[in-house]
């Protein structure tokens, strides 16, 4: 499913080289739930961007569904993101002028899915996160937890190969965060492949496999 091999990422600022990832290798099989935890500056955000095809490694290889994508151009990466990766962001990233239905529908519009099928899939996705009755509400009319559930529905609607969650409870209170984590647990029980990037040990320990990254290197791997 996911196989990154000796991935390195270096940023160049004038004459200065900043090596953020220093040789990271991770393999995630279909249906696994993996957390990647580390402090600020550890390299986990850079790793998330590479896993999510938002950036490319400076060196190393990245295989997704058996295809080596480390050398893809931006158009090819955009297609991979739309077809194979469902994103759940800390700040939700919902469009404020669109209601919940329209926000969830967007990935299907980009994919060229016909109207009737879009409607069915969006309603199913919103129902799966308990927001069928809020589909016509805009983000400002929803609580933080409800907005994150809309974001999860948007991630799910395209039936991606991988769900990639970046600090999914970081902007939520304890109760809302718990509700979101229960949804993620349920998705894992449905054999969805999930990667969670977090600095929260309680979130990390819900995963099957916990990977600790520090100073651009994998420090530890353990099965929870």
UniProtKB/TrEMBL annotation:
This is Putative ABC transport system ATP-binding protein. The keyword Nucleotide-binding applies. The lineage of its organism: Bacteria, Bacillati, Bacillota, Tissierellia, Dethiosulfatibacter. It comes from Dethiosulfatibacter aminovorans DSM 17477. InterPro entries: AAA+_ATPase, ABC_transporter-like_ATP-bd, ABC_transporter-like_CS, ABC_transpr_LolD-like, MacB-like_ATP-bd, P-loop_NTPase. PROSITE patterns: ABC_TRANSPORTER_1, ABC_TRANSPORTER_2. Residues 2-223 form the ABC transporter domain. GO terms for cellular component: membrane protein complex; plasma membrane. It comes from the Bacteria. One of its GO terms (molecular function) is ATP hydrolysis activity. Keywords: ATP-binding, Nucleotide-binding, Transport.
